[in-house]
């Protein structure tokens, strides 16, 4: 579904991605793990059209994505939930979700979609008319994911959804991601919580200083890599 | 001292200032750009009425309507032609561009029409009064208040009830995220500029309604008022702009009544003194905004 070929990207003089290649097939949950600064968020931003790569190709369902604006990327079916949630604090939950459905163009679908969303995130029903800024961290994360789902994405990209959440909420989020995966959503999950991520992923890539160090199934990654040293930022074995 | 006359005057001025400030903030909230060419939209609306009146005979209301439309169109075009190309470069580039547009428009009017004031026709109603609450209240003031409140109501409806309005508010909160949800950046920005033009156009009608004339520099005073009102009310919120406008109107009117005759000429100086005091205690303005200060790029 998504093919990334030899992608490189920089922030000015700092190269964040060096020749990264990866693939995601329909229905997969692919994980991108690595320490801070490894380039995971940069990769997601480049796919989402927020950043321009310096070289390489991104192909989604046969179409080239490079050079397209963020508005066009989501129209092609790729939704991103950025790091830090980025929900609209001055808008209500309802308004946040309405914007999530912006690309849908179909008013009647909105009610149906809402019911599905409430099934997955009952708390959002309770807080429907509250301002996004008054929600707790965990609720905001749920809102951010719900908002992305409103666009019926073909590929859902999550950038560190468990960041800054209490352990109980982390469980909730990972459960949710697992459920979404089971329902058939293709997911690209960027996380620093390596253990939990490898528990639910189909395949994973380990990114380090902008390069793919290891890729494969969770078992392969677990056996080849010292997970603790990844977590704490040490060199791979 | 605080008679019916006073209150009507204060609310009239406040309503006008609220609209002025709103037109400025609606663009600032999304682009983080202070549009220095905003005052010139008022000038252009005024000259539109003058020019139409010179050439053909048209009912005043139609001329006023056209003037507002011209202001909206000019605002839209300045964004398209001047600001959009430099939008991704830097905020400074946009700021300097707005100075350039302002200078171009002012001097354009100066060269093409005249550096001297030109008379603008006003409806007879603007010089008539009505007896209400024991006072003679100018129709002009009543119309200003009613039109302003109507415009504020329409704008509120647009922002709260339509998807476009929600998108505008979201863009002021986090522009990049709004684009990532599929909202076209250009649509949002153009809409903000058109609304800005609408405000300027309506303000122009009532501003010129007080002097019955238009000059190339007529936009300077309203622009300054817009700055002051937004600074008082808070630059990051539309509610702040409206509150700032009414507070400006109220304080300016109070000063007009309370200052001794000898100091009346310095009313503006006292106004700024009050603004300084407000800023000392509330630097972000009276209304706290939710804007994160993120600039669009």
CATH level 1 class label of chain B: Mainly Alpha
CATH class assignment of chain A = Alpha Beta
**Estimated share of beta-strand residues of chain B:** under 5%
Radius of gyration of chain A: 17 Å
The number of helical segments of chain A is 10
Named CATH architecture of chain A: 3-Layer(aba) Sandwich
Beta-strand content of chain A: 25-35%
End-to-end gap of chain A: 32 Å
**Count of separate DSSP helical elements of chain B:** 11
Q: Biggest β-sheet of chain A: count, sense, barrel?
A: 6 strands, mixed
Please name the two chains that share the biggest interface, counting residues whose Cβ lies under 8 Å from a Cβ on the partner chain: A-B, 25 and 19 residues
CATH architecture of chain B: Orthogonal Bundle
The name CATH uses for the topology of chain B is: ABC transporter involved in vitamin B12 uptake, BtuC
Q: Spans of chain A with pLDDT under 50 lasting ≥5 residues? A: none
- Count of discrete structural domains of chain B: 1
The helical percent of chain A reads 25-40%
Could you characterize what this model shows?
- The complex is a heterodimer of chains A (237) and B (297).
- By secondary structure, chain A is α/β, with parallel strands linked by helices.
- Chain A has helices spanning 40-48, 70-75, 93-100, 107-120, 122-126, 137-149, 167-182, 194-200, 218-224, 227-232; strands at 2-11, 14-24, 29-33, 55-60, 63-64, 78-81, 155-159, 186-191, 203-208, 211-216.
- Chain A has a single domain (2-232), classed as 3-Layer(aba) Sandwich (Rossmann fold), CATH 3.40.50.
- Chain A has a six-stranded mixed β-sheet, sandwiched between helices. A four-stranded antiparallel β-sheet of chain A has the order 2-1-4-5, with helices on one face.
- In chain A, a hairpin with a 2-residue loop joins strand 4 and strand 5 (63-64).
- Chain B has a single domain (4-281), classed as ABC transporter involved in vitamin B12 uptake, BtuC.
- Helices cover 70% and strands 4% of the residues of chain B.
- Chain B has helices at residues 4-31, 38-55, 60-83, 91-112, 139-161, 163-173, 175-180, 185-211, 220-233, 238-258, 267-281, and strands at 118-119, 129-132, 135-138, 213-214.
- Chain B is globular and about 55 Å long.
- Chains A and B meet through helix 2 and helix 3 of A and helix 6 and helix 7 of B.
């Amino acid at each position: 579904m998504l093919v990334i070929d030899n992608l490189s990207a920089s922030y000015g003089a700092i190269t964040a991605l060096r020749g990264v290649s990866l693939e995601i097939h329909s229905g997969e949950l692919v994980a991108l793990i690595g320490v801070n600064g490894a380039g995971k968020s940069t990769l997601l931003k480049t796919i989402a059209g927020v950043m321009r790569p310096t070289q390489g190709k991104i192909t989604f369902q046969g179409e080239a994505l490079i050079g397209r604006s963020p508005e066009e990327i989501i129209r092609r079916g790729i939704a991103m939930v950025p790091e830090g949630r980025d929900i609209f604090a001055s808008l209500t939950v309802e308004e946040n979700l309405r914007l999530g459905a912006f690309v849908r163009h179909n008013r009647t679908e909105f009610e149906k979609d809402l019911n599905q969303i409430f099934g997955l995130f009952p708390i959002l029903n309770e807080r429907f008319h509250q301002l996004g800024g008054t929600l707790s961290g965990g609720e905001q994360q749920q809102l951010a994911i719900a908002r992305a789902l409103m666009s019926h994405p073909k590929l859902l990209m999550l950038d560190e959804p468990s960041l800054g959440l209490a352990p109980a909420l982390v469980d909730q989020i990972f459960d949710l991601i697992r459920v979404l995966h089971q329902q058939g959503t293709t997911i690209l999950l960027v996380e620093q919580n390596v253990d939990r991520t490898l528990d639910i992923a189909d395949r994973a890539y380990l990114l380090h200083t902008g390069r793919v160090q290891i890729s494969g199934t969770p078992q392969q990654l677990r056996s080849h890599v010292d997970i603790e040293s990844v977590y704490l930022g040490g060199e791979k074995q | 001292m605080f008679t019916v006359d006073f209150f009507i005057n204060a609310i009239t001025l406040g309503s006008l200032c609220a609209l002025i400030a709103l037109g400025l903030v609606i663009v600032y909230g999304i682009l983080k750009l202070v549009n220095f060419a905003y005052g010139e939209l008022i000038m252009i609306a005024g000259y539109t009425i003058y020019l139409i009146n010179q050439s053909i005979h048209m009912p005043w209301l139609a001329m006023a309507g056209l003037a507002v439309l011209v202001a909206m169109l000019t605002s839209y075009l300045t964004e398209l032609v001047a600001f959009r190309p430099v939008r991704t470069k830097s905020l400074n580039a946009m700021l300097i561009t707005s100075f350039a547009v302002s200078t171009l428009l002012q001097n354009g009017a100066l060269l093409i029409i005249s550096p001297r004031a030109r008379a603008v026709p006003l409806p007879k109603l603007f010089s008539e009064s009505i007896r209400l609450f024991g006072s003679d209240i100018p129709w002009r003031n009543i119309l200003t208040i009613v039109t302003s409140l109507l415009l504020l109501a329409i704008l509120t409806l647009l922002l709260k009830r339509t998807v476009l309005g929600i998108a505008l508010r979201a863009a002021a909160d986090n522009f990049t995220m709004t684009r990532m949800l599929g909202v076209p950046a250009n649509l949002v920005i153009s809409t903000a500029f058109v609304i800005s033009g609408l405000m300027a156009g309506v303000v122009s009608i009532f501003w010129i309604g007080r002097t019955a004339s238009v000059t190339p520099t007529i936009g300077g005073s309203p622009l300054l008022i817009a700055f002051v009102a937004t600074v008082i009310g808070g630059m990051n919120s539309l509610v702040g702009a409206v509150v700032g406008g009414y507070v400006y109107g109220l304080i300016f009117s109070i000063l007009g009544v309370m200052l001794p005759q000898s100091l009346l000429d310095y009313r503006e100086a006292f106004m700024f003194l009050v603004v300084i005091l407000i800023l000392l205690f509330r630097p972000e303005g009276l209304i706290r905004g939710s804007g994160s200060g993120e600039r669009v790029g």
